[in-house]
Amino acid sequence: MPIRLRKFIGTILIIVLVLVYALVANTIAVATLGNAPWWGHLLYFLFTGLLWVLPAMVLIKWMAGPPRK
Q1: What are the protein's UniProt keywords (predicted)?
Q2: ∠49-55-59 over CA atoms, to 5°?
C-alpha cells in the first residue's frame, strides 16, 4: 500500500477514534459521575484523557509503515 494512502486512511481513522472515544467517555462520565466528588472527576478525566493515546499510537505506527532496512 502506498505510504500516502496509508497516511490518509490513518488520519481518517484517528479522527473517527477521537470523536467516538470522546462521545463514549463523556457518556460514561455523565451516567456514573453525577454525585462523585471533584477529585473523582479529575481522576476519571485524567485517565480517559490519556487512554485514547494507546490506540492512536498503534495507528500512527501503522501509518509509518514497516521499518526500513
Answers
A1: Membrane, Transmembrane, Transmembrane helix
A2: 130
Name the nearest CA neighbour of 6 among 68, 66, 63: 63
Reported as a single tens digit per residue, the pLDDT across 10-54 is 999 999 999 999 999 999 999 998 899 999 999 999 999 999 999
Domains of the chain, residue spans? 3-62
Closest of 56, 47, 63 to residue 5, by C-alpha = 63
- Alpha carbons 37 and 35: distance in angstroms, whole number: 7
What is the H or E stretch that residue 15 is in? Answer: helix 3-32
Integer Cα distance of 45 and 61 in angstroms: 26
**pTM, two decimal places:** 0.81
Count the alpha carbons within 13 Å of 22 in the hemisphere toward its beta carbon.
Answer: 6
